[in-house]
Design a protein that fits this description.
By secondary structure, the chain is α/β, with parallel strands linked by helices. The chain has helices at residues 47-54, 77-83, 99-104, 108-111, 119-131, 147-160, 177-192, 204-207, 230-239; strands at 9-18, 21-31, 35-40, 62-67, 70-71, 84-87, 165-169, 196-200, 212-217, 220-225, 244-251, 254-261. Helix 5 (119-131) crosses helix 6. 42% of the residues are buried.
């Protein structure tokens, strides 16, 4: 791997142990600005553990993570929160705050704990709500929303940070197909604006719509490349024990790959 100086996020030979068991092993990767990346793999492959390690939320057994050219763990907490936004797989799902207030929490790293929201902060909140089609939900309390609506608000909170690195663990969970599509389009737009976007996805057809795939198996990265690469698709079918077959769809906007279950 050719290392680019000051890459948005860089992992070098990282290992993570949970309960004394290795769940990420000797893994190196480099995230690039302007790219939307999906992490895929079977259950227990280490996808969520990898994302938590990249976010600095679990201790590393070995290796290091670099955020914009500096060790992640050496950055002050507020500086890290300004540069890296995170959405957990099991995000906060209840609460009495109005949805807009939840999204506004994403601006705390920029304004400080005791700072008042500026017009720029409010504009960022508006952009985030619009990106997940949740403007109509902003005055409702989180506890009064459905699972999919809550997920959209928590996504908006992460988007409102407007950080150069965005890490999302299962962001499409609970979302219906139109909102899944809208989210992927929003994340692609965020990447085109210069962010490095990474998401863990279980739906392979959704994953095949991004710029780059990271395929994990037993805690290791076994493939890294674009969905259109034939070797990548073969490895993807292999790690899922050939339970799916990847097929091409010729659409007006170009060729798209979909995952079809094998009877």
């Amino acid at each position: 791997m050719t290392v680019v100086a000051h890459a948005p996020l860089l992992a070098q030979d990282i290992a993570v142990h949970r309960g004394g068991r290795p769940v990420v092993q000797g893994l190196s990767l480099q995230l690039r600005a302007g790219e939307c990346v999906a992490v895929v793999g079977p259950n227990g492959a280490g996808k969520s553990s990898l994302l938590a390690a990249l976010a600095g939320l679990v201790p590393l057994h070995a290796g290091r993570v670099m955020l914009q050219g500096q060790p992640l763990d050496a950055r002050p907490a507020r500086d890290r929160a300004q540069r890296l936004a995170w959405l957990a797989q099991q995000g906060q799902s209840d609460g009495e705050l109005p949805a807009r207030e939840i999204v506004r929490l994403g601006r705390l790293p920029q304004q400080g704990l005791f700072g008042a929201p500026s017009p720029h902060d409010e504009a960022a909140v508006d952009r985030a709500l619009h990106a997940v089609d949740a403007v109509a939900l902003q005055d409702r309390r989180l506890s009064a929303l459905s699972g999919g609506e809550r997920q959209r608000i928590l996504l908006a909170r992460a988007l409102a940070v407007e950080s150069p690195v965005l890490l999302l663990d299962e962001p499409t969970a609970h979302l219906d197909p139109p909102h899944q599509r809208a989210l992927l389009r929003s994340l692609a737009a965020r990447a085109r604006d210069g962010a490095a976007v990474v998401l863990v996805v279980h739906d392979l057809t959704l994953a095949l719509a991004v710029d780059r795939l990271l395929v994990m198996e037993a805690g290791r990265l076994v493939a890294d490349g674009p969905p259109g690469d034939a070797d990548m698709r073969a490895e993807l079918e292999r790690v899922f024990d050939h339970a799916v077959r990847l097929q091409a769809l010729d659409l007006p906007e170009g060729t798209r790959w979909v995952a079809v279950p094998v009877p």
